[in-house]
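User: Please predict the structure of the protein below. I'd like the answer in structure-token form so I can feed it into my own downstream comparison script.

Assistant: Understood. Taking the following sequence of 263 residues as input:
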Amino acid sequence: MHPMLNTAIKAARRGAAVINRASFDVDRLKVSSKQQNDFVTEVDQAAEQAIIEVLKTAYPDHAILAEESGASADLSEQSENVWIIDPLDGTTNFIHGFPQYCVSIALKQKGQITQAVVYDPTRNDLFTATKGAGAYLNDKRIRVGKRDKMAEALIGTGFPYRDMSGLDNYVEMFRVMTQKCAGLRRPGAAALDLAYVAAGRLDGFFEKGLKPWDIAAGALLITEAGGIVGNFTGDSDYLYHGDVLAGSPKIFAQMVTLLSPFA
């Protein structure tokens, strides 16, 4: 296992320990709203600091891009090593005791994602990938699903909540996809949804308006598991653009056909 991946796993488990302790007494958490339907808790912040401490101890010269604390002072366009962190993806689920949330950590080196960890503390599911070395779930190699017909595919998605002006557009996407696939699911944690695509639990995924920390780790998991990630027109400009479409190769191609009008 790559030493940087080992460090990322250690950091993810350290963050998850903070989350697990808090999960026993969720009602006492301090919750604030960043904007409509977008919540942050003291657990998000504490888990992020625990993760950053592990990463910075091992690699003090690496930059950070994290959901709660933002970009570290040393992050620039010239940064060769950037850790992209979502300490608790699925905060709303966590607040309600709905067991669908995760820690997501990715390493971007010279513009490419090279290491990825998505850890689900409720199920002890550890998804990992190193660029060029495959994707794994709890040390077992994973591959994207084998279904090749959209009518048989289970597709994950997410509802818009940062910009509600896009809701009508999403409802139309929902209508189109519902008519074509076997089922749509909206579990509420994009990083974990992407990991599920990598493991074949979902055949595809689409969402608009995501952030790099929602996408980075899950995208590497999918490509290392034999899948494809792109924007709604199928291009590779998705990490900072935020519109993401992912799936096994044949399902991806069919989703592009259906969703490219919404790009």
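That's the full token string. The first helix runs from residue 3 to 23.
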